[in-house]
Amino acid sequence: GKPAIELQTRIELTGNHAALARLGFRETERTAHKGYDRPTSITMRKVIS
């Protein structure tokens, strides 16, 4: 099986961030879509061993 699940969510969707955190996901990275100079998405990861 896989060691972890990674998801991306738009930075504005704070409700999604909170829900994923409650499910055990942790923020691992912030990235920007092409053409933006600020982060536009958050990568979240949950280890599933």
Can you describe what's shown?
- This protein is α+β, with helices and mostly antiparallel strands.
- The protein has one domain (4-47).
- The chain is built from one helix and three strands.
- It has one helix spanning 14-22; strands spanning 4-10, 26-31, 41-47.
- It has a three-stranded antiparallel beta sheet with strand order 1-3-2, covered by helices on one side.
- The mean pLDDT is 96.
List keywords for this structure.
single chain; 1 helix; 18% helix; 49 residues
Radius of gyration: 12 Å
Task: Report the order of strands and helices.
Answer: EHEE
The structure class reads alpha+beta
Task: Tell me, briefly, the overall form.
Answer: flat
Count of DSSP helices?
1
Number of domains: 1
Question: How would you sum up the major sheet?
Answer: 3 strands, antiparallel
How many β-strand runs? 3
Tell me what portion of residues adopts beta-strand conformation: 35-45%
Residue windows where pLDDT falls under 50 for at least 5 positions: none
What's the mean pLDDT score?
96
Strand order of the largest sheet: 1-3-2
Helical content class: 10-25%
Rounded to the nearest angstrom, the distance between the terminal CA atoms is: 9 Å
